[in-house]
Amino acid sequence: xxxxxxxxxxxxxxxxxxxxxxxxxxxxxxxxxxxxxxxxxxxxxxxxxxxxxxxxxxxxxxxxxxxxxxxxxxxxxxxxxxxxxxxxxxxxxxxxxxxxxxxxxxxxxxxxxxxxxxxxxxxxxxxxxxxxxxxxxxxxxx
Length: 142
Ligand code: HEM
Ligand code: HEM
Prior knowledge:
Blueprint: H1 9-33, H2 39-62, H3 64-67, H4 70-94, H5 100-123
Helix pairs in contact: 1-2, 2-4, 4-5
């Protein structure tokens, strides 16, 4: 049953924390070395890795019915399977490896699909349960 699934909120937040460490580590390396060639990797490790994943975790914590759905599982796995190789492909491209560009393009579209799944998951009408508000059966406040 859909509602018995574990909430994905914690997984998003743990992933966010890992990306935060890596992204800030790269930022410090960039500053120390004066080599800013990987700036876009640093920016997206922070924004897709730390900020967006952390925010997603917080959102799923509140929108319990969305956070426990099969769509939430697909959203999490597709996003996270795409993100690390996408950052690697971006790094290779910025270092002059043009063969990485189509790979980066495909992975960014996979990432885009996972974001669409998130949007569908958030707006999908569900039967109200627990103390879900009338406005959104996806939102169950603790
Ligand atoms: C100790 C922590 C950090 C260090 C040392 C650091 C260092 C840097 C450096 C050296 C650049 C390149 C600047 C340039 O070439 O113009 C940069 C760019 C950037 N950083 Fe960080 N950063 C840190 C944390 C963060 C965090 C937490 C975020 C986001 C949540 C972030 C987001 C960005 C973005 C978006 C850019 C690109 C800015 C632009 O488009 O001009 N950084 N950072
Ligand atoms: C699949 C998702 C994404 C793709 C394909 C993408 C793509 C891009 C591209 C092509 C650039 C220009 C880079 C350049 O001129 O060198 C860029 C820059 C930027 N993007 Fe994204 N982006 C994505 C997600 C995001 C998200 C979620 C955020 C914020 C939460 C974000 C924030 C930024 C910022 C701040 C910059 C300027 C810093 C930089 O040049 O690296 N992006 N992005």
